[in-house]
Amino acid sequence: MFIQPQENVRSDFHPDLTVILLGTGSPRAFYGRAKPGAVVLAGDKAFLVDCGGGAVDQLIKAGVMPQRISDVLFTHHHYDHNAGFFDVFITSWRTHITSERVYLGRSVPMQVYGPETTKEIIGKMRESFEFDVRLRISYNLSDEAGSRIEYTECNEGVVYDKDGIRITAFEVDHRPVYPAVAYKFEYNGKSAVISGDTIPVENMVKHAAGADLLVHEAYNKPWLDALIARYPEHEKALSNPAKYHTTTLEAAEIARRAGVKHLVLTHHIPAPAADETAEEAYIAGMRKIFTGAITVGRDLMAFRL
Ligand SMILES: [Zn+2]
Ligand SMILES: [Zn+2]
């Protein structure tokens, strides 16, 4: 079901819908868990969903050169989901030449999708890139069109429908971050949903119904409670996730009700070690609720549907 990242993802055409997890971490700093993000490959397109701090490095490790990215979809605007945008924007615009191949920089405006607030927030970021952008156009002769951004703000509805690829945004609940969305990708008869950050919502059950893959955020409540018991002076900082995230058991319940084939957890809090023993402990109780496939996502895992 899942493949090694370097296998078959370097080619530029993907007959199968493929989801690669770039980062499975959270705002916390865990070794080996990059900030959240995923790349979705379909046909000749590579869509970046969220853009955490390590996005460019993770793309390269995943075998997807950043020059292929001209579409970035934001689920919401917590920094762990957007702080890598400067790097992705400029790197994708730069031509990269190796002895084997030329990776032509993006010569079209970056297409940025996200909930309302996206244009204001990413627009301000883009203004801060202006010094570098001007130099690249005047000195490095980068294509001017690549310096621009075109925005599609949508909380609920189809945001992309071309060449057999359809992407639907739908609202989730990550308040006080409002609005926040999830994305459903459909291609070649397969579907994959990426939740972004959210508490359990009915809209997820509705849009993920029958999906081949559901990448859902989750935190482990007993593990978090144990940390709070150990560090009561940090109770407030530690208990915050409970207010606007989904527990592992709740994610299993969502997957069961939606009838998805495969549930992949991401945005782990606290992150388990990337080994089977720790991951089995992390998902304790989930298999009683959801009998489909469950995977604890690791950075650079790829799922070809
Ligand atoms: Zn987050
Ligand atoms: Zn968030």
Question: What is the correct CATH architecture?
Answer: 4-Layer Sandwich
**Radius of gyration (Å):** 19 Å
Q: What's the helix-strand series?
A: EEEEHEHHEEEHHEEEEEHEHHHHEHHEE
**Helix percentage range:** 25-40%
Largest pleated sheet: 8 strands, mixed
| Separate helix tally | 12
Q: What topology, given as strand order, has the largest sheet?
A: 1-17-2-3-4-5-8-9
| Count of individual beta strands | 17
The gross shape turns out to be: globular
CATH topology description: Metallo-beta-lactamase, Chain A
Poorly predicted parts: none
Text of the CATH class: Alpha Beta
Structural class: alpha/beta
CATH homologous superfamily - what is it?
Ribonuclease Z/Hydroxyacylglutathione hydrolase-like
Alpha carbon gap, first and last residue = 7 Å
The total domain count is 1
Q: What small-molecule ligands were found?
A: zinc ion
Describe the protein.
With 305 residues, the chain is of the alpha/beta class. The protein has one domain: Ribonuclease Z/Hydroxyacylglutathione hydrolase-like (Metallo-beta-lactamase, Chain A). It contains 12 helices and 17 strands. The strands form 3 sheets. An 8-stranded mixed beta sheet has the order 1-17-2-3-4-5-8-9. Strands 10-11-12-13-14-15-16 form a 7-stranded mixed beta sheet. Strands 6-7 form a two-stranded antiparallel sheet. Helix 1 links the parallel strand 4 (45-49) and strand 5 (71-73). The longest helix has 11 residues, at 118-128. 47% of the residues are buried. The model has no long low-confidence stretch (mean pLDDT 94). The structure holds zinc ion (ZN) (2 copies). The site of one zinc ion has 7 residues, from helix 2.
